[in-house]
Amino acid sequence: MLDVTNAAKSPAPAWPKSLYATPRMAMPAWSPSPNETFVAEDIMESCRGAAQHLYVEGLTSLGITSSLAAEGRTTIALAMALVLAEYGLNTVLLELDLGHPELAQRLGVAKFPGVGDLAEGRASLADTMRPVTTGLSVIPAGQTHGSISRALRQLAEIDLLGNLGNQGHVVVADLPSLLGNSVGRQAASLMADLILVVRAKVVSVTSIKEAIEGLQTTPRVLLNGTNSRVPGWARRLSGV
Amino acid sequence: MNRYLEIGFAHKLLLLAPMVAALVGTAAFMLLQPASYQSSATLWVSGGGVGTQSAAAAQADVMNQFLKTNSFALTVAQASPLGDYLTNHPDAIESGSITAPIKKLLGRSETPQKPSDDAIRTYLASHVTVAQLGPSELTVTVSAPTPDVATGTALALITQMSTAEVAAKTTPAQTQLALYQAQLADQAKLISTDLAAVRDYLAAHPSLARDPNLAATDPQLSLLQNAANVAKQTYVALLAKIDQTQSDLDLARKPNNGPYRVVDSPQTPGAPSLGKQQLIVGGAGLLAGLLLMALMGALLVRLDTTIHSPDEVHRMIGLSVLGSTPLSAR
């Protein structure tokens, strides 16, 4: 088993004072085209815009959650991780949606070992981290033999996020949805900052209010899928 | 507005469903209605109008008034195939009612029975359209279940209309003629009486008969002769009036002097056409469909509690917005 504390060999880069002060073009490692392999460029562009509203200096862990399943959490989490990596942050994309893992397949990396294996003591942090692109590594869900709730408790006990932070990593976590399962809130409670992905025109306000009720951290909203269904001719006719 | 459009285009099928249902229902109702054939005639109205009303408009008013009378409708029905048709097809009278298509669907047929005068008038009034084409031109259109009934009814209608109008116009003259004739008979008696009085006076005074100079100076004889002459003149004047009235009546009764001239005679229609009632039903169905669609749209908007744009987020759930992605990331 590898030493968890020595997982990140390279020293953490200096964090930018703010994303506005860190032009993307000046970053030598930035290259937009490879990221499009994982996420469409317009979603990336939207997440770049969203990232400019984040308080980057204090950012340690950012959880991406949603009220219901299939609202676009995983894609947004991946896009946010790529955007933070573009800006030079040493980013780790952590898959905490242990019940529905899909990051490994999407990124083309090995599924195991991952978060579940780390939580249940079958692997070290270094075993689970897989580099994806410059400044970005991923820790996939892996295998969880026990209950997911227990695995999440164990992650809190070994202070995974604290360790990653100490190594200069910013964690972007793909969390389970808040409604429809018992671990959404538990996973969200591990994160310092939360983004609530809301699928525009699909999820009702009632569901969203129910989902955010009792959360320890007030999430900020990223509205997903706001493109209009109204054809151009109808917009021109109505003057909208 | 944008929210309405978004919801509308997101639920196109739900919005269109009531419209389609209304149109299908309307089409089914129209298909169950009996076929309608139309036969039209174009008439040229002679003479001037009444006040500011054109001749055609005045004539159309007259025609519509005739159509409201039982006697006229009955005459038209008897003079055309319409009367027989309505007797043999009593259900045709009910074709405007909602129960008629249902009875037709159930295959119920009724035995022949003579329709009432009111029923014939109502049927005729609802199947005849008088429309003004110009200041002196109008069309009379008859809708009927068969081509022959349509043409026959249109022909009978035009003929009876002219006859009825001529009769209406000549009635005062006929009354006047009868009065003159009665006066003439009275006057003839008066002449006889006056002449008899002259004869009696001369018989009583033979000297007057022998001496014209003496007769010319006799005041009583002059009085009697004057009375006889006045009676003769009145008789002659009455005769002249009777001749004039009779001449006027003959002129009014001539076919060329009717209220209108038929420019285009009614033709036998070759194919059924959409009747007035079917057009009304079709329009009502379309309107009902549009209304239902608008109601469905309003319901969908009312029931929609989703967030459509970033500026709605804080207002609806009280959270701040980081941004939005136009394309749906799944």
Concise synopsis of the structure shown:
By secondary structure, chain A is an alpha/beta fold.
Our Rg estimate of chain A from Cα atoms comes to 18 Å
| Strand order in the largest sheet of chain B | 2-3-1-4
Structural class from helices and strands of chain B? alpha+beta
Distance between the termini of chain A: 61 Å
Percent of residues of chain A in beta strands?
A: 15-25%
User: Roughly how much helix do the residues of chain B carry, as a percent range?
Assistant: 55-70%
Describe the structure.
The complex is a heterodimer of chains A (240) and B (330). In chain A, strands 3-4-2-5-1-6-7 form a 7-stranded mixed β-sheet, sandwiched between helices. With 240 residues, chain A is α/β, with parallel strands linked by helices. Chain A is globular, with a radius of gyration of 18 Å. In chain A, a hairpin with a 2-residue loop joins β3 (130-133) and β4 (136-139). Helix content of chain A is 33%, strand content 15%. Chain B contains 13 helices and 5 strands. Chain B is an alpha+beta fold and 330 residues long. In chain B, strands 2-3-1-4 form a 4-stranded antiparallel β-sheet. In chain B, a hairpin with a 4-residue loop joins β2 and β3 (137-144). In chain B, 66% of the residues lie in helices and 10% in strands. Chain B is elongated.
